[in-house]
Design a protein that fits this description.
single chain; alpha+beta; Jelly Rolls; 2 domains; eight-stranded mixed beta sheet; five-stranded mixed beta sheet; 18 strands; DIOX_N; metal ion binding; Iron_ascorbate_oxido_reductase; iron
Length: 419
């Protein structure tokens, strides 16, 4: 008698061919990675620690006690300045809605890869890996749907995934409401009306991104998402219990402990520019897990492409620029280098100070085509006074010789430890 259970089972693979493409990059890459393939500037300490992000109870914003409301707003602003990241609980998005959204997200990503790649679901926004990567360090071990909110309610975007539409419409509306509350608190802290972003960041300009990070058998240090900062005003993240998110804190990578009851909020580049550097847009990444897949959903608070971004107070550290102009520069960086140049992305030039002999320093000043503001120096670490004096002298020479053509808002000076 024929036993159907004895037949081999054909497994339908829902994951994109990440391993194949990563292997091709590893095969083609030189033994010593080129400088642009490194994900950290020279001099940054590579160290992973665990951290507990500031945890803020947003229920206190609705307290009948003014002191509690003010304390909550102050905690939000302080975390945005000191960390650029924080967690929120009692945020108004029900656990049931989060669970329903996660269920539909998992169902969508379980679709066979060949079908996801061609079916055009969610405004044909499916993407995976990093097409522009030129070496393994630039490769993101992930897949995603990146959907403009203007398309979220359109029935035609969902095809056979009709059950996804209702929950996504409700989820995106709830995230949008929360983002505006937080943006209003941050604006109010700087003396501006809480509704200042209502016209700048209309709902149709914002995005929702569904992420899946498949288990990665290659290495625990492979990026699920390469180091970057967010080119928006504000990002709100809902993640599962697997973990993998890391952020740069005090020149070290620190791992964020997942909290199922909290949403993670981080400041984007536009808010840093608008706040005149009061709030920080912090570099972060996702490290792929060796055995478990990870899911997350991110909401991005964005302006229209023609919105003019300028600092909210004078004197301004940034010249005015449009979101379209800024996004074009970001895309050019990715196309040129295969990765997002997170220093130039925020309008910075990088000066790397290296020993080139006794008592001398070699300065490397990459070309900067981002012209947002005036020449400044920050993160200046040199212990030896003689080297410090020589470095400052050289920077001043560079300033006077180059300032007529290129003004940059920040210069990150990184020194070797033995300087």
């Amino acid at each position: 008698m024929h036993d159907p259970t004895s037949q081999p089972i054909m497994m339908i693979d829902s994951s994109p061919p990440l391993l194949h493409h990563f292997g091709e990059l590893a095969r083609l890459s030189p033994q010593i990675p080129a400088p642009e393939c490194n994900d950290l500037p020279s001099g940054t300490v590579v160290m992973k620690e665990c951290c507990q992000l500031p945890l803020i109870d947003l229920g206190c914003l609705n307290s009948t006690t003014e002191r509690e409301r003010l304390a909550c707003a102050e905690a939000i602003c302080r975390a945005s300045s000191e960390w650029g990241f924080f967690q929120v609980v009692n945020h108004g998005i029900s656990p049931e809605l989060v669970r329903n959204m996660r269920r539909e997200q998992v169902k969508l990503f379980q679709t066979p890869f060949d079908k996801k790649a061609i079916c055009g679901v969610l405004n044909n926004s499916y993407r995976w890996g990093t097409p522009t990567a030129t070496c393994p360090k630039q490769f993101s071990w992930s897949e995603a749907f990146h959907i403009p909110l203007s398309k979220v309610s359109e029935q035609a975007c969902y095809g056979e995934f009709s059950s996804l539409r209702e929950v996504m419409v409700e989820f995106s509306a709830a995230m949008s409401k929360l983002a505006r509350v937080l943006a209003g608190v941050l604006a109010g802290n700087l003396g501006h009306p809480r509704g200042v972003f209502e016209n700048i960041c209309q709902e149709n300009n914002c995005f929702l991104r569904l992420n899946r990070y498949p288990a990665c058998p290659v290495s625990p240090e492979i990026s699920g998402l390469v180091p970057h900062t967010d080119s928006d005003f504000l990002t709100i993240l809902s993640q599962d219990e697997v973990g993998g998110l890391q952020l740069m804190k005090d020149s070290k990578w620190v791992a964020v402990n997942p909290n199922q009851d909290a949403l993670i909020v981080n400041i984007g580049d536009l808010f840093q520019a608008w706040s005149n550097d009061v709030y920080r847009s912090v570099e972060h990444k996702v490290v792929a897990h060796g055995k478990m897949e990870r899911f997350s959903i991110a909401y991005f608070l964005c302006p229209s492409y023609d919105s003019l971004i300028g600092s909210c107070n004078e004197p301004s550290l940034y010249r005015e620029f449009t979101f379209r102009e800024y996004r074009s520069q970001v895309q050019e960086d990715v196309k040129r280098t295969g990765r997002l140049d997170y220093e130039r992305k925020s309008g910075a030039a990088v000066v790397v100070a290296e020993p080139s002999g006794i008592g001398h320093l070699k300065l490397i000043l990459p070309r900067s085509r981002v012209q947002y503001g005036t020449f400044r120096v920050r993160n200046f670490y040199l212990k030896n006074p003689t080297n410090m004096l020589r470095l400052w002298s050289t920077v001043l020479l560079l300033l006077f010789s180059d300032s007529a053509h290129h003004f940059v808002s920040k210069v990150l000076i990184i020194a070797a430890n033995n300087c």
